[in-house]
Design brief:
It contains eight helices and six strands. By secondary structure, it is α/β, with parallel strands linked by helices.
Length: 225
């Protein structure tokens, strides 16, 4: 758990039985398999987007399970790593929505630094095995992260792509916050409602309507439009 302003909100989770079981499972997995991301990046989403700054949440599911891809931010990969298909589609929708051409890398840290919480519902994965760490306790923890954000007084925009993410609408206080949902940006589903959904401009409009600063959806290295 990071020593950030998330700590007082999430520390009670560390004393619950599921947390000890999850840590035991992870230790066993790391002894016997390659596990992504590196331990230092498990809570990168919380490190990069402090609780006080959260203005939007983009919810993913598993970390990427290929070598060098996962670094603790949903949909993001480190610079120098090939942009994965779902993120390519996110960039295509960003271009359609905001007129920004796809950048040459897939690192979304610039979004996180502005208060976009890039949260996966499962924070680890065994190399090469998608969904291998689901239903081991991470979802209990990340549901609590969502509840803690939903308890904020100022408006937050929750961007929920795909069926799994959209189930989390039930734990968001929609009387205070805005939910934007669509199909997942995966190549398997992006044409079923993700393309054309305009999540970036919708998010900024919802923030502006609440008197909050909009998100600059450029990534590091892009020039102002």
């Amino acid at each position: 758990m990071p020593a950030t302003d998330w700590n007082p909100h999430l520390r009670p989770q560390l004393g619950l039985p599921y947390w000890a079981e999850l840590q035991s499972f992870l230790a066993d997995e790391r002894r016997n398999h390659a596990v992504y991301p590196d331990p230092a990046d498990l809570f990168a989403a919380l490190h990069h987007a402090p609780y006080a700054s959260v203005a939007a949440v983009i919810l993913g599911q598993d970390p990427y399970h290929g070598p060098g891809q996962a670094h603790g931010l949903s949909f993001s990969v480190p610079r120098g790593v090939a942009v994965p298909p779902s993120l390519r589609n996110i960039y295509l929708e960003r271009q359609s929505d905001l007129g920004l051409p796809p950048p040459p890398h897939g690192c979304l840290e610039a979004w996180a630094r502005q208060g976009v919480l890039l949260l996966n519902t499962t924070l680890s994965v065994r190399a090469g095995q998608a969904a291998s760490h689901q239903r081991r306790g991470w979802e209990t923890f990340t549901d609590e992260v969502i509840r803690v954000v939903s308890a904020k007084d100022e408006r937050v925009v929750f961007i929920l792509w795909g069926a799994a993410a959209r189930t989390k609408r039930a734990i968001v206080d929609t009387s205070r916050h805005v939910v934007i949902e669509s199909a997942h940006p995966s190549p398997l589903s992006a044409h079923n409602g993700f393309f054309g959904s305009r999540p970036f401009s919708q998010t900024n409009q919802a923030l502006a309507d609440a008197g909050r600063e909009p998100i600059d959806w450029r990534v590091d290295g892009e020039l102002p439009g």
